[in-house]
Amino acid sequence: MTEGQILLTGRGIQQVFGKGRGRQIAVDEVNIEVHSGQCLALIGGSGSGKSTLMRILLGLDKPTSGVVTFDGELVEGRRSAGYQALRRDSSLVFQNPFTSLDPRWTVFRSMAEPLNIRLGRHSRKNSLDIDRKTRESLSLVGLDPAEFLERYPADLSGGQAQRVAVARALMTDPKLIVADEPMSAVDVVARLQILEALAAIRQARPETSVIVISHDLGVVQRIADRIVVLHEGKVVESGSANDVLNRPKAVYTRELIAAASL
Amino acid sequence: MMMRNDSHNRAEEYQTGTDLSDMRQGAVSSVERSANQPSKRAAKDRENVALGRGFAVVLRLIWKRGEGKFALTVMTSWVAISLISLFWTPQSLWKTDGYQVWAKPSATQWLGTDGIGADVFSWLMAGARTDLFIAVASVIFAGILGVLLISIMVSRNSALSNGSVVAVDALISIPTILIALILAVPMGASVMVVVLACGIGYGLNLARVARPEALLAANSDYVGSALSYGASGFSVMLHHILPNVMPTVMVQLSLSAGTAVLAESGLTYLGIGVPSGVPSWGHSLATSVKLIDVYPLSALWPGLIVTIVAVALNIFGDVLRDTTDPSSNPELRRS
């Protein structure tokens, strides 16, 4: 498999909370890089620092030390070119689909929102484009637009709602999709459907990078190219999915493999 | 546990690997046709249609329920009588008869006469429009004030939001009647005293009642998502937060409308509400209640009307809440 260009990097990232005796190192000297077209799984239990790391990589929090770059630009503060590029070219999928979709909005309206915000909905051409794109994205995640566009979140199952959230993330044609525990708030069948949706996206848009954050090695093994295992803020294992799963070096990784589902 | 040996073409292999993905493939091919035909309707039209349909559906749903029928009937009659009273009352409001005071109901005076011999029924009819104006005006005022306060209270500027919470909590401790008394000093007895006092009191109350819900929406992931795509705070407030607190706001305002009618009676009775000479239910009540021992019926009519209207508005608020939320009302979601 050919490695694409480097899209996102984090170098020597450290995040420290508190001072004195309450001082806690949440993320400790983490180096990470994501190539375009790659699917990276960030694995770790609760308190491993994976969410903190994600917020730093997305430019939402400032690390104590370390540098993040996106598309070759430095991400440093809200005015930086890297931050602007991140906001423009990345999309987030949240853990709980029902809190990430407005309960009073139809699927269509929620999905069209990112483009409505960016393009404005005043021109007829734009609204036709948005219409077409909504249908394409929804089809890509395996939901029939004719059936689902006018539904409200209360009429969706967890898996359907999360796939709508994934489809919404696609609307802006992002270079990077970050999914934060996308499968932990839904049941097992829904997990499979979400995995399929992510796999279909990777096939349809091979240049799009995906970061999946999870506590469960089992669910990501099917789609991840690379796996990074975090434990107590440190990277304990990092490598191709194949290597990590079949020849784990760290004890913690072995525990994770033994505990994995699916 | 299934472990994969090769990392190549994972996605592709997975596509053909399991039954489930075959099913999905089928679904995709069947929907792709519709994906290639964008709907002719613009997105905005669709929203407007949904909105208009929603309004009709809500009215129908309210009417479907027994208590909803009662509330809607009372409210429609109230509006109709107010309008009619502008052009016609059975007797002139200003026709008095010193020999016919506290008369019993008769063919010409349907509910009898009051202490100066004026027709009680005509005065109650005319009172309807004053009370309707007071209820509507104070609800509008309270709604605007409340929504403004809510917007400030959930603002991302923490100094502003914390400050406004403290301010609202402090101001809310002032009773509506005290606000009215303070306003009556410069303004005298007038309809506007009632409207302003009720508007301020209910607006503060509304802000405090709706704040938790507004905060919940403001901190939700859908707001986070909208902001991450570059939506402005104002647009998020308008499109996400306010629609989600609307059910609470509606109910609270309906209750407030009922309370405003009661407040008008109370304040007019105290002499700081509607001035004498202006027909209102509070006025009818205040003039007749002094002689309740002698002529109990004359105090019964305005009291009864005020009670019925206040109850109807309360019920309307409850029914409205139950019917306007698509997440709790499946009928609204059906197209």
From TrEMBL, chain A:
Alphabetical list of InterPro entries matching this protein: AAA+_ATPase, ABC_transp_ATP-bind, ABC_transporter-like_ATP-bd, ABC_transporter-like_CS, P-loop_NTPase
Gene Ontology terms describing biological process: transmembrane transport
This protein's record includes keyword Nucleotide-binding: yes
Alphabetized UniProt keyword annotations: ATP-binding, Nucleotide-binding, Transport
Database matches in Pfam families: ABC_tran
Annotated ranges, domain ABC transporter: 11-257
GO molecular function: ATP binding; ATP hydrolysis activity
The keyword Methyltransferase is annotated on this UniProt entry: no
CDD domains reported for this sequence: ABC_NikE_OppD_transporters
Coiled-coil parts of chain: none
PANTHER family per the UniProt record, alphabetical: D,D-DIPEPTIDE TRANSPORT ATP-BINDING PROTEIN DDPF-RELATED, TRANSPORT ATP-BINDING PROTEIN
Membership in a protein family: Belongs to the ABC transporter superfamily.
Designated name of the protein: Peptide/nickel transport system ATP-binding protein
Organism: Bifidobacterium commune
UniProtKB/TrEMBL annotation, chain B:
Ranges where the ABC transmembrane type-1 domain occurs: 128-317
Region (Disordered): 1-45
Compartment(s) where it occurs, according to its Swiss-Prot or TrEMBL record: Cell membrane
Keywords assigned by UniProt, alphabetized: Cell membrane, Membrane, Transmembrane, Transmembrane helix, Transport
Domain of life: Bacteria
Residues annotated as transmembrane: 70-88, 132-154, 166-185, 191-210, 222-242, 299-320
GO cellular component, one term: plasma membrane
Biased composition (Polar residues): 27-39
UniProt cross-references to SUPFAM superfamilies, sorted A to Z: MetI-like
One of the GO BP terms on file: transmembrane transport
Matches recorded under PANTHER family: D,D-DIPEPTIDE TRANSPORT SYSTEM PERMEASE PROTEIN DDPC-RELATED, OLIGOPEPTIDE TRANSPORT SYSTEM PERMEASE PROTEIN APPC
Family: Belongs to the binding-protein-dependent transport system permease family.
Name this protein carries in UniProt: Peptide/nickel transport system permease protein
